[in-house]
């Protein structure tokens, strides 16, 4: 079968239009990504283009990985030399080679948002800014938006004119950039901006990349920002072989500076552009598509598209309104368990999508007790954990002593008796001498006023220096082990003996596994390469298709993906669309952005879509009463199975009896013993690597149980027996208490201690 046989007519045209600018503008699931992979194969196999000359840019590493895999399957020889990357990793690769032309060292560090905050705190302190009035976050977000638009500190200042706050921001921006440079560090936005700067400054470098990337393709083009557009424009300037695919209805990153005009004005930027539309959807059933079409039709100012499919009407969309968020999670867990039991789906066919990360917690609790394997993407990143950051800071210090933040992070971890006052003195000295913090530590004896503290600093410097020497000989894994050993990091945690310390040790083990993985996957592994690799992995990237687990992620991370069975959770006004969007001054536009997100969510589903909402939900410890989301009400009722309950009046959103029931139900929600996940809504709880030990569900008595299945009647174990739980491992049954239609079983697990769980959910096996 030829490459082109697997495509419909417009898709074929898009694949064969190899030369000159090409815009493919099409709705969800119409095969845009598929066109890109086939086009790549076609260029190589049919047009004889050297794979080395092809670049495909995507938004997430996960998407890049998938694309690479698909291309590998189609292209025989040489597919590994195709450049399939995200914007950020593309820029890192370019900057690692050439950033010295901008006065940075090529071993620069990449700062994550935590590092940025720490740096910003320092700057505000230095500039004596009242951070109660002007928050660090405000400055960081102003700087980030400026970078998305390629506005440097000088231009920022010019534009600020007489505006007081803007002038303050300009000053902070300038200081911030200087500090980054001193630390030989870049933030995420810098990666793109510095590459554009490099291309504009150095024609020779630009020309070499233009010659290399003769054919450029960009997926999810609707979410590019001005800086990314400029990057692409410069690269494509010489040969003009630029193919972009996107869907204006799926533009969901305005808050990150995505510029919808990049797609709407493509024909203006590239007057010779060919435009191709795709309208047949291959992913979803007609019912799902009709729902998506009906919802998105409420947006103004969009390019009209109507999707159709040959897939048949399919099942109706299930809508289920629950009393509480806990019941919502329960409902979804049961539904998945039921469908898997019936053989309808595997776990991996199922995805739960939600608006904010924090919503994942209840699902996670439910899944643990119900023994449903799951993985959470997004949320608190593994690499944002304290213990992981500490150890990485050691590695960064060993690799590049110029990163002040990393050095300051670990100077007193473990405790070396070096106080804040001493650290400030060193920092001040470093600033005066215009040297790095680490270099100042090296000459601690010369720092005025340090006194005895200098002697305490000495062993630290000696240790780092010896490690620097060893770094040339040891593998990353050995180096990491040696840091752990010498600093006594794990020993200290072991001595602590708490569950939390245990979980931290597990995370450290995970980091070691990561180092091993890295070394195995690289031809020439280096410490710097490892740190770079770590800086670029978002959680989404650890998505592993081969394992069977339910996927939990935010709607934003679900872009471009597809699942047979999708649950959209928390469809309540105030949650989705968000409270901010409803109350914003610019409400119309913000709700349209939320609606596009709803459209993305609905169109992820291939066969089954279930939408859920809760009448009562806790948000930041406060009870909220949510009305069913307007997006659900925009779906024609005939497509839905399940009724929308509407409150009678605005003043009394929920009847008293329902309210009381809901309150009661809340008391039965498992509460978390563990701490450390107390994040704001939107920042969330989840992580791919979360250890089950870190979350300690503690159950209060459960009343009003409903159908708990049949397992309760015939337990295969009794008190004193040894049992096995899929997540918690082996343990001894301590107590079995009848609780209505189910049994509450207390098990003392060897590794995680005592847990109470429901027999029908826990699926304990006697061993
Ligand atoms: P999104 O807007 O969500 O990114 P998309 O337009 O990129 O979607 P794809 O992911 O490329 O769509 O395709 C959606 C699904 O339809 C995939 O499973 C793909 O394999 C399938 N598909 C696309 N075109 C065809 C075709 N001509 N024949 C058979 N299957 C197709
Ligand atoms: Mg796609």
TrEMBL record:
One Gene Ontology term from the biological process aspect of the record: response to radiation
Keywords for this protein: ATP-binding, DNA-binding, Helicase, Hydrolase, Isomerase, Nucleotide-binding
GO MF, one example: ATP binding
Catalytic function, reaction form: Couples ATP hydrolysis with the unwinding of duplex DNA by translocating in the 3'-5' direction; ATP + H2O = ADP + phosphate + H(+)
GO cellular component, one term: DNA helicase complex
Binding residues for ATP: 26-33
Domain UvrD-like helicase ATP-binding: 5-285
InterPro entries referenced in this protein's UniProt entry, alphabetically: ATP-dep_DNA_helicase_PcrA, DExx_box_DNA_helicase_dom_sf, DNA_helicase_UvrD-like_C, DNA_helicase_UvrD/REP, P-loop_NTPase, UvrD-like_ATP-bd
Any single Pfam family the record assigns to this protein: UvrD-helicase
Keyword Nucleotide-binding applies: yes
Phosphoprotein as UniProt keyword: no
All residue ranges annotated as the UvrD-like helicase C-terminal domain in the record: 286-560
This enzyme's EC code(s): 5.6.2.4
Family to which the UniProt record says this protein belongs: Belongs to the helicase family. UvrD subfamily.
Full protein name: ATP-dependent DNA helicase
Source taxonomy: Bacteria, Bacillati, Bacillota, Clostridia, Lachnospirales
């Amino acid at each position: 079968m030829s490459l082109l046989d697997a495509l419909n007519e417009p898709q074929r045209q898009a694949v064969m239009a190899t030369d000159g600018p090409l815009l493919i503008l099409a709705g969800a699931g119409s095969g845009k990504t598929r066109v890109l992979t086939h086009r790549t194969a076609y260029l190589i196999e049919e047009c004889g283009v050297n794979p080395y000359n092809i670049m495909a840019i995507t938004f997430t590493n996960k998407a890049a990985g998938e694309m690479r895999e698909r291309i590998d399957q189609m292209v025989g020889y040489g597919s590994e030399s195709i450049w399939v990357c995200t914007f950020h990793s593309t820029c890192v690769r370019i900057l690692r080679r050439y950033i010295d032309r901008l006065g940075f060292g090529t071993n620069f560090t990449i700062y994550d948002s935590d590092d940025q905050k720490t740096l910003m705190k320092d700057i505000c302190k230095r500039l004596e800014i009242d951070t109660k009035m002007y928050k660090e976050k405000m400055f960081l977000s102003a700087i980030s938006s400026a970078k998305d638009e390629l506005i440097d500190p000088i231009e920022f200042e010019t534009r600020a004119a007489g505006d007081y706050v803007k002038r303050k921001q300009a000053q902070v921006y300038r200081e911030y950039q200087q500090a980054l440079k001193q630390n030989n560090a870049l933030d995420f936005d810098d990666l793109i901006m510095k590459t554009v700067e490099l291309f504009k400054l150095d024609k020779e470098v630009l020309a070499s990349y233009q010659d290399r990337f003769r054919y450029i393709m960009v997926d999810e083009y609707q979410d590019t920002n001005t800086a990314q557009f400029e990057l692409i424009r410069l690269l494509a300037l010489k040969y003009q072989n630029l193919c972009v695919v996107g869907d204006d209805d799926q533009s969901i990153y305005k808050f990150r500076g995505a510029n919808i005009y990049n797609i709407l004005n493509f024909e203006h930027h590239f007057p010779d552009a060919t435009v191709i539309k795709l309208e047949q959807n291959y992913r979803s059933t007609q019912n799902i598509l009709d729902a998506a079409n009906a919802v998105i039709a409420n947006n103004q100012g969009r390019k009209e598209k109507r999707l159709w499919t040959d897939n048949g009407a399919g099942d109706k969309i299930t809508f289920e309104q629950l009393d509480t968020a806990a019941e919502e999670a329960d409902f979804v867990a049961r539904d998945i368990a039921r469908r898997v039991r019936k053989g309808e789906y595997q776990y991996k066919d199922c995805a739960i999508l939600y608006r904010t990360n924090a919503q994942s917690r209840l699902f996670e609790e439910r899944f643990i007790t119900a023994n449903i394997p799951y993985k959470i993407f997004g949320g608190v990143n593994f690499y944002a954990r304290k213990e992981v950051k500490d150890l990485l800071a050691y590695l960064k210090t060993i690799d590049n002593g110029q990163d002040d933040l990393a050095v300051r992070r670990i100077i007193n971890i473990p405790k070396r008796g070096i106080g804040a006052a001493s650290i400030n003195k060193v920092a001040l000295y470093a600033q005066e001498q215009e040297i790095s913090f680490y270099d100042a530590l090296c000459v601690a004896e010369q720092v005025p006023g340090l006194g005895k503290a200098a002697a305490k600093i000495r062993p630290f410097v000696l240790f780092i220096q010896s490690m620097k020497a060893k770094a040339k000989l040891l593998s990353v894994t050995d180096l990491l082990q040696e840091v752990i050993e010498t600093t006594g990091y794990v020993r200290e945690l072991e001595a602590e003996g708490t569950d939390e310390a245990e979980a931290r040790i597990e995370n450290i083990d995970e980091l070691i596994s990561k180092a091993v993985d890295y070394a195995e996957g690289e031809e020439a592994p280096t410490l710097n390469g490892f740190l770079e690799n770590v800086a670029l992995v978002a959680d989404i990237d650890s998505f592993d298709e081969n394992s069977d687990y339910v996927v939990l992620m935010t709607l934003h991370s679900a872009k471009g993906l597809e699942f047979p069975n999708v649950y959209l959770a928390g469809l309540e006004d105030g949650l989705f669309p968000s409270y901010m969007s409803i109350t914003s001054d610019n409400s119309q536009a913000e709700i349209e952005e939320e609606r596009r997100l709803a459209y993305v969510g609905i169109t992820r589903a291939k066969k089954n879509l279930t939408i859920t909402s809760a009448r009562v939900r806790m948000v930041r410890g406060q009870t909220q009463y949510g009305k069913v989301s307007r997006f659900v009400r925009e779906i024609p009722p005939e497509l839905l199975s399940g009724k929308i309950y509407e409150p009678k009046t605005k003043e009394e959103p929920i009847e008293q009896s329902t309210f009381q029931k809901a309150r009661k139900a809340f008391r039965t929600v498992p509460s978390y013993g563990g701490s450390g996940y107390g994040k704001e809504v939107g920042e969330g709880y989840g992580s791919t690597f979360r250890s089950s030990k870190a979350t300690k569900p503690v159950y209060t008595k459960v009343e009003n149980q409903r159908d708990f299945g049949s397992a309760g009647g015939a337990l295969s174990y009794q008190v004193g027996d040894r049992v096995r739980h899929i997540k918690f491992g082996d343990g001894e049954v301590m107590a079995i208490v009848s609780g209505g239609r189910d049994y509450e079983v207390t098990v003392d697990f060897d590794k995680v201690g005592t847990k109470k769980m429901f027999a029908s959910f826990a699926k304990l096996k006697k061993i």
